[in-house]
Design brief:
Elements: H1 6-9, H2 13-21, E1 27-30, E2 43-46, E3 55-58, E4 63-67, H3 80-90, H4 102-118, H5 133-137, E5 142-143, E6 188-193, H6 209-212, E7 219-222, H7 224-229, E8 237-241, E9 246-253, E10 261-265, E11 298-304, E12 309-315, E13 325-331, E14 334-341, H8 348-356, E15 362-368, E16 373-380, E17 383-391, H9 399-403, E18 428-430, E19 435-436, H10 437-447, H11 452-459, H12 469-485
Helix pairs in contact: 10-12
């Protein structure tokens, strides 16, 4: 398994994970061992990452460009071609895999494309099959095909297509009913997708405190009417169940989804939120023509997770909780975690020491057994190492402020709030410049900002990558509605 994470990303992900775990011998080649799939490997081969690779990249416009490494390969990491060639040689094919560098592989690749070209295939770069080392090193961006007769240009301009008749084949397709149909047992349609700050299964973006600050845990968006009918409140945890799997997600009530519809992102994994693995709910139905998985058409039931306790934790060092629900995200000062469980530990102080791995740290705690609350801080050498906040309902504290405290002398940590003289920026909305929602709302109202551009000029928010501009526009619209109502 090379550079992919099928134990999370494939439909029926639980079945895929079980199948991989049942294999006699699993080899994973990747840039990290911290993935759901890599943890199932018998052999893990460390591969180079994108900025460490030397070779070519072909864009969707057919342009072949040289890619040159800008960083040295760390530790024992090797390029993909070197790993595969070494495996081939150890299998006994010494001559066939006796490559010394990417140039030799590219020349063979180009020559083989010429063979395919003689059979009428469109990809042919045989004109590059004689590149020497210097020519490959300085190869300029080139659009294929590259042959003795033609370089680049438009395809099909002469009306000929790559079929024996030379004609295009038009398929008379019509829409099909979705394989997954709602039932009384599974009345909701689940739509899966992405959030703006993360990529695939977060093996890279999940390491960024700035990107994780915007949305730190998996969630399910549900329409207000459905939430009211199911007695779900904001910040509740919901259990989603499909015919294929289960998940636990934080509830976000919004009219951006229609009644009967639920949206959930795909990114969280066993590394970041084990019960947030959304592809475990997706059936392995595929389109009969294209083979595309029907990954946006699951049906689910949804109900509140009846938790005995909810928690929030911050830590200067990595943590891996052990409870019914948890989601961990990196921060600039360490890590933050959302927690919930079905059974309440008998001793929260002992549980905090176990969770954070700090058996000898100095402890400060405020426990209220009657109310079911606990606030615990662990310090070493006058510096906050970790803190845990527990309540019978979702914990109401200043999460972003608390996430900045590990490593500091934070005497006020157990209040769960920022000091009165320290403004609360609120959850980060602009990841590029770390601008919080409260900061934006205050600036919009106090400075009379009327446009996204004005917000950008005043706070920089939305002026870089632009991905937060729609959310800034929504804040502006809400502020204008409040002003009109007044």
């Amino acid at each position: 398994i090379i550079h992919t994470n099928p134990a999370v990303s494939m439909p029926e992900a639980d079945a895929v994970r079980t199948a991989i775990a049942g294999c006699d011998f699993v080899v994973v080649s990747d840039v990290t061992g911290a993935t759901d799939t890599a943890r199932l490997a018998h052999v893990l081969l460390p591969a180079t990452a994108w900025a460490e690779k030397d070779g070519t990249v072909t864009n969707s416009d057919r342009t072949i460009s040289r890619q040159r490494a800008v960083l040295p390969a760390p530790g024992q990491a090797r390029p993909d071609w070197a790993i595969l060639a070494a495996v081939g040689r150890r299998m006994g094919w010494q001559a066939a895999f006796d490559y010394r560098n990417p140039t030799e592989i590219f020349r063979e690749f180009a020559a083989l494309s010429g063979v395919a070209g003689t059979f009428g295939r469109d990809f042919d770069i045989s004109g590059l099959s004689d590149l020497d080392e210097a020519g490959y090193a300085t190869l300029a961006p080139t659009r294929w095909p590259v042959t003795s007769q033609r370089t680049g240009g438009r395809f099909f301009g002469d009306g000929a297509f790559y079929h024996p008749s030379g004609k295009a084949r038009l398929l008379p397709l019509s829409s099909r009913a979705l394989a997954a149909q709602t039932t009384p047992q599974h009345p909701f349609r689940l739509n899966t997708g992405r959030v703006r700050d993360h990529w695939h299964t977060m093996t890279r973006t999940g390491l960024s405190p700035r990107l994780s600050a915007h949305l730190a845990e998996p969630f399910a968006e549900i329409h207000p009417d459905d939430a009211a009918r199911l007695d779900l409140a904001r910040a509740d945890l919901a259990e989603l169940a499909s015919p294929d799997g289960r998940a636990i997600l934080r509830v976000r009530i919004t009219d951006s989804v229609q009644p009967g519809q639920i949206f959930a992102p795909i990114h969280w994994t066993g590394e970041t939120a084990p019960t947030g693995r959304i592809d475990a709910l997706i059936a392995a139905a595929t389109d009969p023509v294209s083979g595309q998985p029907e990954s946006k058409a699951a049906v689910v039931d949804l109900r509140r997770m009846e938790a005995a306790w909810y928690g929030f934790a911050v830590s200067a060092t990595p943590i891996r909780p052990d409870c019914a629900y948890w989601a961990v995200a990196p921060t600039k000062a360490g890590y933050r975690a959302e927690l919930a469980g079905h059974e309440t530990p008998a001793d929260w102080e002992a549980e905090a020491r176990r969770l954070f791995g700090l058996p000898a740290a100095q402890m400060i705690s405020v426990l209220d057994a009657a109310r079911g609350t606990a606030r615990i801080a662990l310090e070493q050498d006058g510096r906050l190492m970790a803190a845990l906040f527990v309540a019978p309902t979702p914990v109401a504290i200043m999460r972003d402020h608390l996430s900045s405290l590990p490593g500091q002398a934070a005497g006020h940590v157990l209040t769960g709030r920022a000091p009165a003289d320290l403004p609360d920026p609120g959850p980060v909305l602009c990841a590029c410049f770390g601008v919080g929602i409260n900061t934006l709302i205050t600036a919009i109202e106090s400075r009379g900002l009327l446009s996204v551009e004005a917000v950008g000029a005043a706070l920089q928010a939305g002026s870089n990558c632009g991905s937060c501009r729609p959310e800034i526009a929504a804040l502006l619209a809400a502020a204008q509605m409040r002003e009109a109502a007044e």
